[in-house]
Amino acid sequence: MSKARHLRRLLYILCLLNFLYFLLAPVRDAQAQPPSVYAITHAKIFTLAGSPIEDGTLVIRDGKIAAVGSSVEVPAGAQVIDAKGLQVYPGLFDAVTQMGLSEIGAVNATVDSSETGSYNPDVVAATAVSPSSEHIPVTRASGITEVLAVPGSGGFDSGGGRGTLGGQASAIHLAGWTVDEMLIKKSAAMVLNFPEIQTQTFDFSTFSRKEKPYTEAKQEYDRQINELTDWMDRARHYAQAMEKGSVSKYDRDLKLEALAPVVRGELPVLVFADRARDIRNAVEFCDKQKLKMVLAGGGEAYKVKDLLRSKDVPVILRPMLSLPEEEDDPYDRELSQPAELAAAGVKFAIASFDNSFARRLGQNAANAVAYGLPYDQALRAVTINPAQILGLGSQIGTLEQGKIANVIVTNGDPLELTTDVKYLFIRGQLTSTENKHHRLYEKYLNRPKASN
Amino acid sequence: MKVAKMLNVGNARSAFPFLLGLSCFAYSASAATPPDAPSVILIQNATVLTVSHGTIEHGSILIKDGKIAEVGQSIKAPAGAQVIDASGQFVIPGIIDCHSHIAAESINEGSVSVSSMVTMEEVLDPDDIDIYRDLAGGVTSANILHGSANSIGGQTLVIKLRWGQPASKLPFEGAMPGIKFALGENPKRSNFSIPGQPRRYPSTRMGVEETIRGAFSEARDYKKTWDDYNKRVAAGEKNLIPPRRDLKLEPLVEVLEGKRYVHSHCYREDEILMLLRVAKEFGFKVRTFQHVLEGYKVADELAAAGVGASTFSDWWAYKVEAYDAIPYNAALMTRRGVIVSINSDSAEEATHLNQEAAKSMKYGGLSHDEALKMVTLNPAIQLGIDKRVGTIDVGKDADLAIYNHDPLSAYAVVQKALIDGRVYFDREKDIANRAEIEKEKKALTEKLKKTEKKPEEKKPPEKKPEEKPKTPAPSPTPTAAANSQGGAL
């Protein structure tokens, strides 16, 4: 073999390697370092922190919103998304879900949303959130970028179980390779299913209602309230002992330790209650115990709106697309409640209280508008309000400089049924809206015609 | 959302049970009496979405004696006509819900695997408030089905939501009666087994098929026995003893004779094809597959069999057989030539079926007209009532829903609902009556408190244990059941 031929071959191999290197380079880079600067240009931007910006630019850098406005420069090296004709909003925030905790409601093995027993203040939702849940990308496709994953709050997705202290709810992004990447706040609220005087309960094992006499139900209620009060008292003593350093590692009590931030009034308590009487009892209890109460559910919140307003208790409302509590309530009782609460000055968010129906969040908010809620308040009820209610308002919920870049780019009103999310950013990353449902759609759209 | 509310259904009804007894009084002011029916009504200045022949801007609809007499752009009001000015509003044919459990005292005879002897007609409850609520959502007709606990369930019927009329006036006159079948997890009781109780046959999809085949084998023999008897009678034979009637098999014979529609609850593709095979074997037709959440996987087969598909807009993942459910189902089946409707299976869902239909535009790109058909003409075809309802055409029943916006939007609110040319729901009147109803309710509550304080003064009235909610206690209300699992029972 001549030297020249050797050289040619070497050159050839080098060229090939070089070519392969360039071919693979983008893939390697994508794995190592996703682009960190984006500029969304020529969009109508609804910041929810001021008037909408026509023909605006939003710059995302290192996961945060770096700039937003009508005369913002596109930074050199930014990946530019020309959003002419499109609209930009903060991603939607669904403030009560069992996201990642429950996959198929009827299959126990896939459900981790409710621990057994009545007092589980130490269990944390984030521990059991499955980042691979199919619900996450499906929900994301509807423009929801973050949720509160709530344990132990009852409902079909948790097999009906709900203790009194259900555990700690975690605020999570709907994207991330691991739960740690998804976390906004691991412990965002303590779930308290406020005891009710229940003369009728639903028994899931027989799928039927069970009845008990009122006196018995009232006794049971009093017992639960005493028990709950006792827990709070013990937690308060424990917290004091912790502060004085008198809790050794041998007499640690994990449950009381978990309640310490609750009794200090630092961690919000997500109090589930729907009937006016239960809400009143809950407000009184939390007031007495000096807890930071957030009402969840609030089916009859309208009946106690002045109380909620005067005590500054915010509400996370269950879906408006619900039938009224009472047979003789007006037929649109639930639909018109948000407008009524808004007029009374009660702060509220709207949530799905579900997983598979989470994508109806916008639909619910739009229905509240149809029955009188001002549009901008509906938008706030699924973005900044839940963030503020859960103490995350400075991090997320509006499009302001320095906030986490959870952003959606849509072809219309994000609350309307027919609107599509064109681009979606979570923690500043351009995130796919592809999901199981769309994959099955594509697959069967392309099924060859069956020969019958 | 709805499932989360489920646990509260019991509480909702129990906390103030004494009020339930008053509800008929409370409603008497607004809805319980059938509205007067002026013989001639003219709806003017509306955007008329005819469904059959496009949209008429600034259109009018003339109603005479409960029927649509004229549809067009400028119709003059005849003398004595009641005029409804619908400026800026949208009129569509009244919504038809192909899968409902409202207006029924109970829906599940779940003790046997073939319960064809029971019928919804015998348990119609004209006082069910969900009739009014769904009417307020623009629904004017509904297919009232038995539950899905059995491979072959009870007899079904189509009603009009004539709120305030007695049970005898609810059935849709002349509509073909039906029967509910159910395949998959519910008839095999996958999610309902009670510890310690024996399992009921069938408990597999194989057994479901054999239950249906077995029943139809019996029905075929039974039909032959009667056919032979009738032949001999016709031939003039005297003193023959007629065969004994079998109330379970009679409706199945009607299915074999094409006199009763089969509406079959199903989820998975395999069980859908199974029933088509069984139907072919015994020579009957399946009229509709209900839910049919994997219908998109066998859309060609459904189209070839000429079967209708009545599905949910976007329900999924509440059980294993709903894990491959996709919101594109309606559009995929439509594109392959299946007649598709969107149904509710829930009194709540029925209040916004217009919105649910709209989702097929987003998921799969159906047109505005195609989407609207999903809750009007298509269910009418599926129920065999399309000659009477489902479009806005001359000669059809004046069953209409009037909205303040395009009905395929989440911002649209029903303003009026008409059935047979009568205004059965009027939002303005409903709102105007509320104060009076509230006053009446308060007065009655006070009166009740006074009378009840005498014997045992300590007990507030809501604590009366002997008061029972209106709905029978052993099973959850249809609403609760339907809300929980998509006709899970």
How would you characterize the overall build of this protein?
The complex is a heterodimer of chains A (about 450) and B (about 500). Chain A is an alpha/beta fold and about 450 residues long. Chain A has 13 helices and 18 strands. Chain A has helices spanning about 5-30, 125-130, 135-140, 180, 215-245, 255-265, 275-290, 305-310, 335-345, 360-370, 375-380, 385-390, 435-445; strands at about 35-45, 55-60, 65-70, 80, 85-90, 90-95, 145-150, 165-175, 185-195, 200-205, 210, 270-275, 295, 315, 350, 405-410, 420-425, 430. In chain A, the strands form three sheets. In chain A, strands 1, 2, 3, 4, 5, 16, 17 and 18 form an eight-stranded mixed beta sheet that branches. Chain A has an eight-stranded mixed beta sheet with strand order 6-7-8-9-12-13-14-15. In chain A, a hairpin with a 7-residue loop joins β1 (about 35-45) and β2 (about 55-60). Chain A is globular and about 95 Å long. With about 500 residues, chain B is α/β, with parallel strands linked by helices. Chain B has 14 helices and 16 strands. In chain B, the strands form two sheets. In chain B, strands 1, 2, 3, 4, 5, 14, 15 and 16 form an eight-stranded mixed beta sheet that branches. In chain B, β12, α9 (about 330-335) and β13 (about 340) form a beta-alpha-beta unit. Chains A and B meet through β10, β11, α10 and α13 of A and α1, α3, α4, α8 and α10 of B.
